Amino acid sequence: MTFSLPVDLLRQAKIYAAEHDTTVNALVRTILQERLTAEGRARAAALRVLEIAEHGPDSPVDPGSIRREELYER
């Protein structure tokens, strides 16, 4: 399977992957799992809540982006 991505987006993905000791392939797989499975959406929502708790008002996460349903999906 082949994807076509804008050069800037691919560059950013490579940098992010390198900074997080992973690959672009693993990053895409994780993002798709988070978006397409109930467990993944719940895990992603929980991580956003933890990010807010850790950084408080300086958190880059918008609390409005977390839907209640995401936290309770199984």
What would you note in describing this structure?
This protein has helices at 7-19, 24-36, 38-55, 68-72. The chain is mainly alpha-helical and 74 residues long. It has two domains: 1-36, no CATH class; 39-74, no CATH class.
Shape: globular
The N- to C-terminal Cα distance equals: 30 Å
Number of alpha- plus pi-helical segments: 4
How much helix, percentage-wise, in residues? 55-70%
Cα Rg: 14 Å
* Biggest sheet architecture: none
- Judged by helices, strands and strand pairing, the structural class is mainly alpha
Averaged pLDDT = 81
Percent of residues in β-strands:
under 5%
Number of domains: 2
Order of helices and strands: HHHH
* Low-pLDDT windows of residues: none
Please tally the β strands and state the result: 0
Keywords:
2 domains; single chain; 4 helices; 0% strand; mainly alpha; 74 residues
Give a quick precis of the structure.
The protein is mainly alpha-helical.
Write the layout of secondary structure elements.
Layout: H1 7-19, H2 24-36, H3 38-55, H4 68-72
Helix pairs in contact: 2-3
